[in-house]
Amino acid sequence: MLVQNKFLVLYSMLGLLFADINVAETIQLERSPTVTLSSLTQYVYKHHPSLHTEQAQQQQIDANTALATTPFANVSSVSVNHQNDVIGSHDGLQEWEASVGMPLWLPGQKQQQLLLSDKLSAELPAYKQQIRLQASATIRELIWHAVLAETADKQALQAWNTAQNLEQDVDSKVAAGELAAAESLLASSHTLELYSQYLLTQAALAHALKQYHHRTGEQALPQDYEEVLSIQQDRLQHHSSAIIDPQHPDLKVLDQHIATLHTKQDLARFEGAVNPELSLGIRRERGSDDENYNNSVGIGISFALGNDVYRRPAIALAAKELADAEVTRQQVEHELNAVLFSQLHDLASKQQQLDLENQRVETSRQYFSLQQRAFELGEIDLVSVLHSQSIANKAQNRKLRLQIEMKQLIAQINQARGVAL
């Protein structure tokens, strides 16, 4: 009798606890038709840190273009010389000479500088596309993280509600004297455990929504966020044929950079070279005080001799940078194809798993229904019912999660193939 009273006291305490639990506030994941994947991506794109380097790159282009359009290859110089014999014979000798030195462009040098500006300008659109793709990756990750958290939260809520309904049936049987008070305590403990799991999923959902709002500035998710697979269904059976397109933004920006490095390699043959210099000057001179000034004009040009050895370091460095960029491009393409192949394989595997889970869900649901009926007839104990309920819940949860993961994987495949939102 004393043990039964203890069970009744504990059961009453749990009943008071669940009186507050039933009014717990839930977190809802809102969706809005005015919020789109494109608008979210544009917001993240505009606030992307890498976008700030665009201005610096444009300054480089402008500076290089300004250099290539100057009439001379380097800074012109002016020199003025004066000579007299004041501290010597003092005969009145004076000599004034002024000249302007104008470095000339080497053949093809100016054209290569202009071509370099064109190549640098061509990098900007590819660079923007790459940033857009990075912004798309961020949006895809945020949205599907929130959707998965919402799915887990709904599953936990459903499991908790089912446990509450079962607890009410047990309470009725306890009140009618068909079950011992200990069964009520077991049912309440089970309900409390599921409520604890529900609180954890609520916290995870709140965290996902906070991250989403922080990165996008929006509270609601897009109403339409599921994507269509960007690869033909017949190619899914042959993963090796699903190769990355050469126009992939990550490859495109590398291709443009390699084209720029080719131009820099051609331009490197002018690095270290001494440009010919044209000089134009005038001279005013006399030998003594009784002589008239003699005025003359002079023109000259200077050339460097044997400066090939001074060009070689720049040429070798440019060749190495080009080779490194080409190797990097091959590695990136290989990695992109490897990721795509793996994701396509995962999608096919998850489809097989989903077919199996559909059978498990139906079987476990029938099993739980039979166990619940047997419990009502007094043929089995509560522990057996709770076990069958847990099996049914897990099967249903696996099915729903697989469905969401497959949709998420489609978005990831589109991302791997370079499809921007």
Describe this protein's structure.
It is a single chain. Helix 4 runs antiparallel to helix 7 (249-268). With 421 residues, the protein is an alpha+beta fold. It is rod-shaped, with a radius of gyration of 40 Å. The strands form 2 sheets. The protein has a 4-stranded antiparallel β-sheet with strand order 2-3-5-6, with no helix packed on it. The protein has a two-stranded parallel ribbon with strand order 1-4. The protein folds into 2 domains: 2-69 and 106-272 and 308-416, Outer membrane efflux proteins (OEP) (Up-down Bundle); 71-104 and 274-306. It is built from 9 helices and 6 strands, in the order H-E-H-H-E-E-H-H-E-H-H-E-E-H-H. The model is unreliable at 1-24 (pLDDT under 50). The longest helix is centred in the C-terminal third of the chain and has 69 residues, at 308-376. Helices cover 66% and strands 10% of the residues.
| Apparent shape | rod-shaped
Which consecutive residue ranges, at least 5 long each, have pLDDT under 50? Answer: 1-24
Radius of gyration: 40 Å
> Beta-strand percentage?
5-15%
CATH top level label of the largest domain: Mainly Alpha
| Count of helix runs | 9
- H/E series, N to C? HEHHEEHHEHHEEHH
The total strand number stands at 6
Number of domains: 2
Tell me the quaternary state: single chain
**Overall pLDDT metric:** 83
